[in-house]
Every structure is written in structure tokens, then in C-alpha cells.
């Protein structure tokens, strides 16, 4: 096939993909190569990646430590049906039991975050015999009917009406909604909103699902107080807690899983994205007790196949050997301090939130969410060879989620460019 170039790729995408595709940029670059924290487009231009494909490439692009075991596995054995025995999947499940919090022990492998959540919801229903769920405003859980219905961001849904039996509780968005209250007092109100739902529906609700830090919702970061109170309430009503770590997992926030910052243990934890560092794999992990309710035969054809599981094993090894949790903590602090320094100069940086190398900056101009400014910042940063993300209900939150292999120099380079771009826009 002849070389298409960015315009050709875009034209084919527009002609042959279902038209729900979303682009950040007016002229999206066409990428042809990746190397750790860098990407290269079809013109040879280098970009510093500060988005990591939405928290996927935590171990860096085409990191030899991740891809070599995958290549070896591809050459040796790519796939057999899971009615036979292979080693990588069971070894990965054993390691996941070690690195996940609390009593989480039994894994079900799938191919994506959506499927991991769908599986977790099913496991919760099988265990409790109940079929209703609670989710948070501005959460995002996937693209299937049920997970999309549990998604609380308008732009990521295809209808405004959730499926029956789904209840939304107020999300702990302190910056937007907490005026006049301490963060803890505001979070008490958010937990009280869950109690309001439970007062009517306890006998029907199987589980509550939430992200520890809402990613697409705008890096909404509650305190441990919120999670402790919420978990106590759910336990009182015997409602399971599903924690969606699809975007926050695998050292992103400075701990293997973000929920570890908040002092509670989930009943089911879901993961995908960074588990495969670019290779499709997802999973949910739960306790012996909950897993015991799922005994009928079921398995995903390609879930946890030898190549994907080789990727997962390599990711866990690399997180440990390169000390990525510590790296995300140290570099995250550096980034955060730098952002706070810029905030003093640029009042549009209205709120900075997040943990480790998952940081968001909410841009507000003249009291309003500054979506157009956010777009211009993204575009100008891209022209300067830096990729940054955006999210939030009003599309006005800059999202910084780089590969965890970035360096102090990369952070300084990023901050300097952000400073200059905001200066130009002032
Ligand atoms: N949960 C969260 C928190 C996510 O961020 C995403 C994807 N952005 C999903 C679930 C869905 O994952 P996937 O695209 O792998 O199905």
C-alpha cells in the first residue's frame, strides 16, 4: 500500500470508521515510532509524550524490557484455547494476587478496561443475587451498554437515560462544588448522597463502582476521609465496592494501585491499560469468597493469552526493577511543585490536583471553564513537540500522565513550555 501521510490517514478514518472518533488536534500527527517517553511522527519530528496514550505506556514506548519477552513468546506460542494449560497466565494471576491490596486473590482475564468492569459487575451480581448499581457523577467505566450506562460524563454516553437500576451519586468534586465548606465536610455530603440512594434501594443494589481518582472526569482527587466513610457505609449495607483502576493502576500515582493512598480495600479491583503497556489485556481481581459464586464455565477467548500475559509479567517486573512507584512519587512532586510555581504567575490555572504522575490543571477564565484556551494550549504544546491530554466535563482540564520513565529534564522542559504558552495566551 502506498504511503498515506497524515491527511490520507485522516481521510480514510473519516471514510471507514464509525464516525464517533474524537481528535484533540486540528491536524493530528501521524505517529510512526515510539521510544520510551518519546514519539516520532511521519515527518521525523520528535514529541515528548506527557499523556502516555491515557496512562497506558507507564513503562515507556517500545521498552525492550517489555517487548522482548512478548516477541519471544510470539515466536514460541501465540495462542491456544484456554481449555489447555499454559504458564504465563497463571504466573501473572499469582503475581497480581501479591501486588493488589488486601484479600484480592482470584483473577479473571479479559482484553480491555470495559470488559474488566463488565466482568466485575457480573461477579458482584452473581455473589449478591442483586442487579442494581451505584456510580459517581463524572465517572467513566467503558463502552458497553452497562458500563456506558454507569458512566457519568455526558460526552462519553450515547444517551442521557441510564439503564434501569443504575443510580448516580454526587462525586467529590471539591473545587467546583465545595465552596464554603472544608473538604471533609463537603465529602461528608457526597457520602450522604450515597446513603440517600441506599435508603431506598439497599435490597436491590449489588455494588458501587468508582475510580479512586476520576480520570476523564477531570483528575478529581478525594481524600482518605471520603473513602473511609464511604466504605463504612457500604459495609453497613453489605454493598460491594468495585474500584476501577483502569487509568490509575500500575504505579501511575506513586503506589501500585491508587486506592492504596486512601486506606481502604476494595471487594473487586479492575485493571487494563498499563497492565499490558500497549498490549490488549484487562482483568478483575476479587476475593476467594466473591469468586466462589462464579463456578459456571466462562472464559474470554484471548483474555490473558500467552503474549498478553508475557506483557503483564514484564510490566510487573519492570515496575519493581526500575522502581517506578518511587519514580512517580519523586517526579510527581517535582511536576506538582513546578505547576504550583506557574500557578502564581498564571491565574487561569485555577486548580491543580492529582497524585504522583497523574496531575490535572483546571483552566478557568473570567469565572468560566476555559475549554477554548485548553484546546489552544494543547495545540501550541503539540507544535512545540509536547503531547499533553485534556479531560473534564467541560473539557478544560489539562491532563499530565506521562510515561513513568520521564526524567527531571523532561519535566523542566514541559514546565518551561507550558509557562511560555500560557504567557502567549495571557
Ligand atoms: N475505566 C476507566 C477509568 C477508563 O479510563 C477507561 C478508558 N479510558 C475504561 C474504563 C475503559 O477501558 P477500555 O478503553 O480499555 O475498554
Explain what the structure shows.
- It contains 14 helices and 16 strands.
- The model has no long low-confidence stretch (mean pLDDT 97).
- It is an alpha/beta fold and 426 residues long.
- β1 and β2 form a beta hairpin.
- The termini are far apart.
- The longest helix is centred in the C-terminal third of the chain and has 22 residues.
- The chain folds into two domains: 163 residues, Aspartate Aminotransferase, domain 1 (Alpha-Beta Complex); 259 residues, 3-Layer(aba) Sandwich (Aspartate Aminotransferase, domain 2), CATH 3.40.640.
- It is globular and about 55 Å long.
- α4 packs parallel to α11, α12 runs parallel beside α14 and α13 packs across α14.
- The strands form three sheets. The chain has a seven-stranded mixed beta sheet, sandwiched between helices. Strands 11, 12, 13, 15 and 16 form a five-stranded antiparallel beta sheet that branches.
- 4'-deoxy-4'-aminopyridoxal-5'-phosphate binds next to α5.
- Belongs to the class-III pyridoxal-phosphate-dependent aminotransferase family.
- Pfam families: Aminotran_3.
- This is alanine--glyoxylate transaminase.
Amino acid at each position: 500500500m502506498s504511503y498515506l501521510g497524515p491527511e490520507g490517514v485522516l481521510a480514510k478514518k473519516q471514510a471507514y470508521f464509525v464516525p464517533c472518533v474524537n481528535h484533540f488536534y486540528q491536524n493530528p500527527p501521524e505517529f510512526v515510532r515510539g521510544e520510551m517517553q518519546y514519539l516520532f511522527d511521519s515527518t521525523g519530528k520528535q514529541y515528548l509524550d506527557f499523556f502516555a496514550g491515557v496512562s497506558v505506556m507507564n513503562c515507556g514506548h517500545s521498552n525492550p524490557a517489555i517487548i522482548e519477552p512478548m516477541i519471544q513468546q510470539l515466536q514460541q506460542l501465540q495462542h491456544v484455547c484456554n481449555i489447555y494449560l499454559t504458564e504465563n497466565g497463571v504466573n501473572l494471576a499469582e503475581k497480581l494476587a501479591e501486588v493488589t491490596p488486601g484479600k484480592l486473590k482470584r483473577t479473571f482475564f479479559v482484553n480491555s478496561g470495559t470488559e474488566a468492569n463488565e466482568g466485575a459487575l457480573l461477579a458482584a451480581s452473581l455473589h449478591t443475587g442483586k442487579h442494581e448499581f451505584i456510580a459517581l457523577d463524572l465517572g467513566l467505566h467503558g463502552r458497553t451498554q452497562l458500563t456506558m450506562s454507569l458512566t457519568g460524563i455526558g460526552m462519553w454516553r450515547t444517551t442521557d437515560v441510564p439503564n434501569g437500576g443504575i443510580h448516580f451519586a454526587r462525586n467529590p468534586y471539591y473545587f467546583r462544588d465545595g465552596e464554603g465548606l472544608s473538604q471533609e465536610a463537603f465529602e461528608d455530603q457526597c457520602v450522604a448522597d450515597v446513603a440517600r440512594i441506599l435508603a431506598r434501594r439497599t435490597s436491590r443494589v449489588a455494588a458501587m463502582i468508582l475510580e479512586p481518582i476520576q480520570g476523564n472526569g477531570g483528575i478529581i482527587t478525594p481524600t482518605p476521609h471520603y473513602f473511609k466513610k464511604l466504605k463504612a457505609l457500604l459495609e453497613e449495607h453489605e454493598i460491594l465496592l468495585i474500584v476501577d483502576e483502569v487509568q490509575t493502576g500500575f504505579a501511575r500515582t506513586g503506589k501500585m494501585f491508587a486506592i492504596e493512598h486512601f486506606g481502604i480495600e476494595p471487594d473487586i479491583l479492575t485493571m487494563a491499560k498499563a497492565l499490558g503497556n500497549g498490549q490488549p489485556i484487562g482483568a478483575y481481581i476479587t476475593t476467594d469468597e466473591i469468586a466462589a459464586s462464579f463456578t459456571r464455565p466462562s472464559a474470554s477467548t484471548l483474555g490473558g493469552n500467552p503474549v498478553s500475559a508475557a506483557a503483564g509479567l514484564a510490566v510487573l517486573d519492570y515496575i519493581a526493577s526500575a522502581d517506578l512507584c518511587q519514580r512517580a512519587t519523586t517526579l510527581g512532586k517535582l511536576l506538582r511543585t513546578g505547576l504550583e510555581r506557574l500557578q502564581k504567575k498564571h491565574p487561569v490555572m485555577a486548580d491543580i490536583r492529582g497524585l504522583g504522575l497523574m496531575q490535572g490543571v483546571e483552566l478557568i477564565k473570567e469565572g468560566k471553564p476555559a475549554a477554548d484556551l485548553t484546546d489552544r494550549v494543547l495545540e501550541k504544546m503539540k507544535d512545540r513537540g509536547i503531547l499533553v491530554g485534556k479531560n473534564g466535563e467541560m473539557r478544560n482540564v489539562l491532563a499530565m500522565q506521562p510515561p513513568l520513565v520521564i526524567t527531571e529534564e523532561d519535566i523542566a522542559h514541559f514546565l518551561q513550555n507550558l509557562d511560555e504558552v500560557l504567557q502567549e495566551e495571557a
